[in-house]
From TrEMBL:
Keywords for the protein's UniProt record, in alphabetical order: Cell cycle, Cell division, Coiled coil, Cytoplasm
Highest taxon in the source lineage: Bacteria
PANTHER family per record: CELL DIVISION PROTEIN DIVIVA
Family: Belongs to the DivIVA family.
Localization, UniProt: Cytoplasm
GO CC list: cytoplasm
Residues forming coiled coils: 29-56, 86-124
Presence of the UniProt keyword Cytoplasm in the record: yes
Keyword Cell division: yes
Protein name: Septum formation initiator
Classification via InterPro entries: DivIVA_domain, DivIVA_fam
Protein's GO biological process: cell division
Stored Pfam families: DivIVA (PF05103)
Length: 169
C-alpha cells in the first residue's frame, strides 16, 4: 500500500541520543509531503489525460476500423462492378460475333442466290439468242427462195385480171 502525505506527516520516529535535529527532519518531511502531493496530483492529471487520450485513441481506432470495413466493402463493390462489366462486355462481344456471323451467312446466301440467278439468266439469254438466230436464219432462207418472184408475178396477174373484169362489166 503506497504512502499518503498524511502517513508521512503522522510518522513518528523513535528518539535516541545524538539523533537528527527534529526541526530539520520535520522541515524535510514537510518538503517531501509537498513534493509527494505534487507528484500525486500530477499523476492524477496524467491519468486523466491518459484516459482522454485512450478515449480518443479508441474513437480513432473505431473510425479506422469503420474506414477499413468501408474500404473493403467499396473494394468488393468495385470488384463486383468490374466483374459484371467484364461479363457484360463478354456478352456484348459474343452477341456482336453472333450478329456478324449471321450477317456474313446472309450475305453469302444472297451472293449464292444472285450467282444462281445470273447463271439462269445467262442460260436463258443463250437459249433466246439461239432461238432468235434460228428464226433469223429461217427468215433469211425464206427470203432467198425463188417462190417470192412467182408470188409477186401471181399478184400482178390477179390485179390484171381484176382490172380486166372491171373493164368487162
Amino acid at each position: 500500500m503506497p504512502l499518503t502525505p498524511l502517513d508521512i506527516h503522522n510518522k513518528e520516529f523513535a528518539r535516541r541520543l545524538r539523533g537528527y535535529d527534529e526541526d530539520q527532519v520535520n522541515e524535510f518531511l514537510d518538503q517531501v509531503i509537498k513534493d509527494y502531493e505534487a507528484v500525486i496530483r500530477e499523476n492524477k492529471e496524467l491519468s486523466t489525460e491518459l484516459l482522454n487520450v485512450q478515449e480518443k485513441l479508441d474513437h480513432f481506432a473505431t473510425i479506422e476500423d469503420t474506414l477499413s470495413k468501408t474500404i473493403i466493402v467499396a473494394q468488393e463493390a468495385a470488384d463486383e462492378v468490374r466483374n459484371n462489366a467484364k461479363k457484360e462486355s463478354q456478352l456484348i462481344v459474343k452477341e456482336a460475333e453472333k450478329n456478324a456471323d449471321r450477317i456474313v451467312n446472309e450475305a453469302l446466301a444472297k451472293s449464292r442466290k444472285i450467282a444462281l440467278e445470273v447463271e439462269e439468266l445467262k442460260k436463258q439469254a443463250s437459249i433466246y439468242r439461239a432461238r432468235f438466230r434460228t428464226l433469223v436464219e429461217a427468215q433469211l432462207d425464206l427470203l432467198s427462195q425463188d417462190g417470192w418472184e412467182a408470188l409477186e408475178n401471181r399478184e400482178r396477174e390477179v390485179l390484171e385480171r381484176e382490172r380486166e373484169m372491171k373493164e368487162i362489166y
